[in-house]
Automatic annotation (TrEMBL):
Keywords: Hydrolase, Thiamine pyrophosphate. InterPro entries: DHS-like_NAD/FAD-binding_dom, Myo_inos_IolD, THDP-binding, Thiamin_PyroP_enz_cen_dom, Thiamin_PyroP_enz_TPP-bd_dom, TPP-bd_CS, TPP_enz, TPP_enzyme_TPP-bd. Residues 418-570 form the Thiamine pyrophosphate enzyme TPP-binding domain. GO terms for cellular component: acetolactate synthase complex. Residues 49-131 form the Thiamine pyrophosphate enzyme N-terminal TPP-binding domain. Signal peptide: none annotated. It comes from the Bacteria. This is 3D-(3,5/4)-trihydroxycyclohexane-1,2-dione acylhydrolase (Decyclizing). Residues 220-354 form the Thiamine pyrophosphate enzyme central domain.
Length: 616
């Protein structure tokens, strides 16, 4: 006879979560690092009591904003290269829908995240309950249906026993390298508290080990043959290299073949920046070294990348009409993009087997040497723009240089939206794999501080540096208080350019008038004069406002020794960006305008789109 244990659905859920394990470098660890929770009437009784019962095995963390706590959970999973994850639970209504942006972020970036929002009553007797969204023509709809398009797996738990198959599917998605992404289990609030006789076997410990699919032999031969024919091959390393733990395999492959490597935002730090074959950033925010090779390449080996428009220069970067693209990716959807030759496999195993199939083949020595020369030229150009000056308003690049010199490549550097991704992608000199943490798949303002918190939870002994602009800070800064409360020290560098400087430059570049981006160009009666340092201090952080690069370096040195989170504020120039490197990006310019600047930008745009390789 099957042994059972009577638990509420919520208790069964949390007990199951506490029994899921993973293995990293031979060490068994809990798969779930904890649950972020903001309680409301839709989850405080059911989930709240359940989490309390397992608080020592499955810790609960309190946050200040639902979206932010989910960002922290996502960053935690990314910092662990998807080997571990966290969950987030909220009430129904605004608590739940505040998670939707984070779900989309995790979906785009292929990152594990378990969302557990409360839902309406399954029995419908009290309908409409507080915060319930009613659809006049569909009684089964709730606000949580907004999660469907941004979840890899969505389920609504309307009976307590449904949690058994739902959790089985949840773990399959969260741990699968090809399907990985957010899972949403909408928990009807009455069902959270309902009891069921669950089989004890449901709660047996399970260790989830990373699946590593090996390449199909026919695809492997096809890819090897194509490489052997190449005269100007180039590797693009994406985030899949890091998630696979394939950095060492990539290094060996590049060194054995002499094929230069460039990196996407997600793949940066796949190789150390100072590796002779690492051309660094590619695409719109790329280096001159990488983009020059990409323009000439007759074969592109795209490893673990989804080839989004910033990587490909909106498909105008790769100018060699006879080029071949090989998509080495664990996800067939990504491997076959833009008619690529598919090599569906785990990045580490795929590179190993491809190296074996190539034998002693090497890229032409002149191509490899040419790449090295371009890298040296780029390093010189980057040093010039990041050097310290006495400018009244330093550039983002000069601030980056100060952070690099003071903090070094051993820190984990985190950023997201605005102008910094473009500058950091090409200028930051990353060290160990995962030391560069960019959220640029969804380019989500507000990810930065919460994301830094998640990285610090994953790397408690490491130094985490967060760089962001004043726009992102104003959108979501509440988790500074959480970092202080939890004793998780961050160093936050806030670049204040008094508005949305990045988009203002894009507006100007497309011929538009300065309008509604910088504070001075927005409708106002009085320009705000925000004291960010005082605000950060009010949240419990150590803070400083500095007025020069020299003062910034001194403040960064102090932050290293500080006992808790430090926020350093510096005013920067909103109009200056690094001209070296980079590539055109497809941002459509209006065909009709009264402004001569827009007409000129439209003419340049029409010329540029002719370089796109449509269907290529």
């Amino acid at each position: 006879m099957t042994k059972t244990i009577r638990l509420t659905m919520a208790q069964a859920l949390t007990r199951f979560m506490a029994r899921q394990m993973t293995e990293i470098d031979g060490e068994k660890l809990p798969f779930f690092g904890g649950v972020w929770a903001i309680f409301g009437h839709g989850n405080v009784a059911g989930m709240g009591e359940a989490l309390y019962q397992v608080r020592d095995e499955l810790p609960t963390f309190r946050a200040h904003n639902e979206q932010a706590m989910a960002h922290a959970a996502i960053a935690y999973g990314k910092a662990h290269f998807r080997r571990r994850a966290m969950a987030a639970t909220t009430s129904i209504g605004p608590g739940a829908t505040n998670l939707v942006t984070a779900a989309a972020l995790a979906h785009v970036n292929r990152l594990p995240l378990l969302l557990l929002p409360g839902d309406v009553f399954a029995n419908r007797i009290p309908d409409p309950v507080l915060q319930q969204v009613e659809a006049f023509g569909d009684g089964t709809v709730s606000a949580n249906d907004a999660f469907r398009p941004v979840s890899r797996y969505f389920d609504r738990i309307t009976r307590p026993e449904q949690i058994i198959p739902a959790l089985a599917r949840t773990m399959q998605v969260l741990t699968d390298p090809a399907e990985c992404g957010p899972v949403t289990l909408a928990l009807c609030q009455d069902v959270q508290a309902e009891a069921y006789d669950y089989p004890e076997s449901f709660f047996e410990e399970r260790i989830w080990v990373l699946r590593r699919p090996r390449p199909d032999l026919a695809e492997l031969k096809q890819a090897a043959d194509a490489l052997k024919r190449a005269k100007k091959p180039l590797i693009i390393a994406g985030g899949g290299v890091l998630y696979s733990g394939a950095s060492a395999a990539l290094t060996r492959f590049a060194e054995a073949t002499g094929v230069p490597v460039c990196e996407t935002q997600g793949g940066k730090s796949s190789l150390p920046d100072d590796h002779v074959l690492n051309m660094a950033a590619v695409g719109v925010t790329g280096t001159s070294a990488a983009n020059r090779l990409a323009e000439e390449a007759d074969l592109v080996l795209a490893v673990g990348t989804r080839l989004q428009d910033f990587t490909t220069g909106s498909w105008a970067l790769f100018k060699n009409a006879g080029k071949t693209v090989i998509g080495l990716n664990v996800q067939p959807f990504d491997a076959g993009k833009h008619r690529a030759m598919t090599l569906v496999a785990d990045a580490r195993e795929g590179l190993k087997e491809l190296a074996g199939a190539l034998g002693d083949w090497k890229a032409p020595a002149a191509w490899t040497a040419n790449a090295g020369k371009g890298k040296a030229e780029w390093r010189k150009a980057a040093a010039e723009v990041t050097a310290a000056t006495n400018a009244a308003l330093p550039s983002d690049a000069q601030v980056i240089g100060a952070v690099q010199r003071t903090m070094g490549s051993g820190v984990t550097l985190l950023h997201a939206a605005g102008g910094l991704p473009g500058e950091l992608h090409k200028l930051w000199q990353a060290g160990a794999p995962g030391s560069y943490h960019a959220e640029y798949g969804y380019s989500c303002m507000g990810y930065e501080i919460a994301g830094g918190l998640g990285v610090k939870m994953a790397k408690p002994d490491g130094e985490v540096v967060v760089m962001l602009g004043d726009g992102s800070y104003l959108m979501l800064n509440s988790e500074i208080a959480t970092s202080v409360m939890l004793g998780l020290k961050l160093t936050i560098v806030l670049l204040d350019n008094r508005g949305y400087g990045c988009i203002n430059r894009l507006q100007m570049g497309t011929g538009g008038a300065n309008f509604n981006n910088l504070l001075k160009d927005s409708r106002h009666e009085t320009l705000p004069d925000i004291d960010f340092a005082a605000h950060a201090a009010s949240l419990g952080a150590i803070s400083a406002k500095v007025s020069s690069i020299a003062d910034l370096e001194q403040a960064l040195g102090n932050a290293k020794e500080a006992p808790r989170t430090t926020v350093i504020v510096i005013d920067t120039d909103p109009l200056v960006s690094t001209e070296a490197g980079g590539h055109w990006w497809d941002v459509a310019v209006p065909e009709v305008s009264q402004r001569k600047e827009v007409k000129a930008a439209r003419k340049a745009y029409e010329d540029a789109v002719k370089l796109q390789r449509v269907g290529d």
